[in-house]
Amino acid sequence: MLIVQQVLNGLMLGGIYVAVAVAFTLTIGILNFLNFTIPTLFMLAGMIGWSVSFYGLPFGMSEPLGWIPSLAIGILCAIVASLIVERFTYRYFKAKHGDATEHAIPLVSSLGFLLIFEYMILIAHGSDPRGFHTPFGDLNWRVAGLVISIPQVVGLIVSLAIVAGLSVLLARSKLGRALRATAEKPDTAVLMGVEVNRIVPIVFIMTGLLCGLAGALFAVNYGEVSPFMGEQVGTKAIAGMVLGGLGSVWGAVAGGLIVGLTETFSIYFFGATSAQVTIWGLLLVILLIRPKGLFGHNAIGKGKF
Amino acid sequence: MLLEVAGLDLRYGATHAVKGVSLTVGEGEIVTVLGANGAGKSSLLKAIAGAEKPTGGTIQFNGRDITGRGASQRVRDGLVLVPEGRQIFVSLSVEENLLMGAYTRSGAEVARDAEEIFDRFPNLEARRHAPASVLSGGEQQMLAVGRALLARPKLMMLDEPSLGLSPIVVDQLFDLIAELNAQGLSILLVEQNTQMALEVASRGYVLELGALRAEGTAEELAADASLVEAYLGNAEDAA
Ligand SMILES: Nc1ncnc2c1ncn2[C@@H]1O[C@H](COP(=O)(O)OP(=O)(O)OP(=O)(O)O)[C@@H](O)[C@H]1O
Ligand SMILES: [Mg+2]
C-alpha cells in the first residue's frame, strides 16, 4: 500500500511539473525560444495568490472561499507578467532586428526578467519560505489504507484538462493551425494573412495560464511558498520536457509525470536529497538511448521569427 | 488598372534590391517579370504583397492606395503571392495547407471552395489527410496555387512557379495558369523560364540589378533576342 501511496503522490506532484513543462514546450515548439521567465510566472502566481489571502482576503470573504479569488488574482498576475515579457523581449527584438530567435538577446532578457520578478517579490516579502495552513489541507479521502488528498486530485485533473484543451486547440482549431504554420514558416504564414504580432501573445497567455495554474496548485497543495519556489520546479519541468521530447505537448505530459514519480520514489527509497541526482541521471540515460526524448519529433520549431 | 506600382524602391541595409520600379497589371491580364538571379524579382513581389516594407514608391490596388496596408489586409483585398520555392507547410496536412490559404476568410463557403480545389487536383484529394511533405514537387506547386486560390484572389502573383519541375509538370502548370486567367484571375508571373512566360503573358517587364531595363508586349520582348542575351543570361541554364 505504501508503494501505491507513493505512486499517487508522485502523480500529484507530476501534475504540477506537467503544466510547467507544457509551458516550456509550447514556447520552444512554436516560437523556438527557451523562455527563462517561466519559473518566475509559477512563483508569482503562488506568492501573489498567497499574499492576497494572507494580507487580506478580497471582497471581505472568509477563509476557504476567499482563497479562490486570491489564486485567480495570482494566476492573472502571471499572465500579465508573461505578456510584459513578450512585449519587451520577444516583440521588441523582432521589431528591431527582424528575427528574435537568432539572437541570444531574448534568451538573456527573459533570464533578466526571471531575476527582476524574483527579487521584486523578495524585496516585498523577504527570502524566507512561508509555510501556512490551507483551508483545503485536511480534505482527504481515505480508501483501503490510502490517503488521497482531494485538492491534489482536483489539481491534477484541472492540470491535465487544461493541457488536453490546449492540445485540442492546437490540433483542430483555426488558431492552432495558424500557430503551427507560423512555427514552421513565419514568413509564409504572413503571406496567408496571419498577423504574427497578434498570434505570438496568445502563446505567452497560454504560458502564463499554465504556470500560474501550476503555481496556485502548488501553493494550496503543499502549503509553502517562497520567492525561489519557481527555480526548483522550473528545472524539474525542463527535465520533464526534454525527457518527453522538445516541442511535444503529450511528451511534456508524460515527462512531467515521470519526473514526479521519480522524485517521489527517489525520496522514499534514498532520502530527500537524492531526488535531483535520480531525476537528472534518468534524463541523461534516456537521452543516451533516445536523443529526441520519448515523444520527440523533428518537424516543429525550425521556423524563425 | 488593377495593380499600379510606381517608383517602388526597396533596400536591405546596403543592398539596393529594387530601384524605382513602375509596373501595371490590368484586369484579366497576365503580366510577366523576367530577370536573372538576384535581379530583385522576389523582392519586388514581396514588397507588393506587403511582406517587405518598401523604402519608396506607391502601390495602388483595385483603385486604392495600399502602400501603408499590412500583408494581411492585402490578402483580404484579393492580392496574394505564391512564394518562390512553394513554401508548403510540411508539418501540416494537405488539407490544413489549403485551409491556411483561407485564413482571412470564414464561413461555410471556405469548405466548399476547398472541395472545388480537391476536384481540380485529384492527386491532392487522394492525400488530403497526409502530411504535405509526402507530395512531389509538382503536387506541392499545385497545393501552393490551390492554397492561394482559397483566399479568393483578384490578382495572383507567382514567384518562379516552374522552378525545379519536370518539363511535363511545367506544361501542366502553365496550362493551369492560362485556365485560371481564362476564368477571370489576373496574374503577375515572375519567371526565369522566359520562353514559357512570354507565351502565356500578354505583356512583360525585364528587371536587371533591381531596375527596369525593358518593357513591352510579349511579342516584342520575345522578338528581341539581344535582350534575352543581355539581361536574362542563359534562360535554359536558369530553368
Ligand atoms: N532578406 C534579405 N536581406 C538582404 N539582402 C537580400 C534579402 N533578400 C534578397 N536580398 C538581396 O537582394 C537582391 C535581390 O534578391 P531577390 O531575391 O529579390 O532576387 P531574385 O530576382 O528573386 O533572384 P532569384 O532569381 O535568385 O530568385 C540580391 O542581391 C539578394 O542578395
Ligand atoms: Mg527570387
UniProtKB/TrEMBL annotation, chain A:
Domain of life: Bacteria
InterPro entries documented for this protein: ABC_transp_permease, BCAA_transport_permease
Keyword tags: Amino-acid transport, Cell inner membrane, Cell membrane, Membrane, Transmembrane, Transmembrane helix, Transport
Record has Membrane as a keyword: yes
Segments crossing the lipid bilayer: 12-34, 41-61, 67-85, 105-124, 144-170, 199-218, 238-260, 267-289
Classification via CDD domains: TM_PBP1_LivH_like
GO annotation, biological process: D-alanine transmembrane transport; L-alanine transport; L-isoleucine import across plasma membrane
Annotated membrane topology: Multi-pass membrane protein
Protein's UniProt keywords contain Transmembrane helix: yes
Main location group: membrane
Similarity comment: family membership: Belongs to the binding-protein-dependent transport system permease family. LivHM subfamily.
Protein name: Branched-chain amino acid ABC transporter permease
Organism from which the protein derives: Rhodosalinus halophilus
Automatic annotation (TrEMBL), chain B:
GO molecular function: ATP binding; ATP hydrolysis activity; branched-chain amino acid transmembrane transporter activity
Domain ABC transporter span(s) in chain numbering: 3-234
Annotated PROSITE patterns: ABC_TRANSPORTER_1, ABC_TRANSPORTER_2
Keyword Transport in annotation: yes
Swiss-Prot/TrEMBL GO biological process terms: L-amino acid transport
Annotated Pfam families: ABC_tran
Family from the record: Belongs to the ABC transporter superfamily.
This protein's name: ABC transporter ATP-binding protein
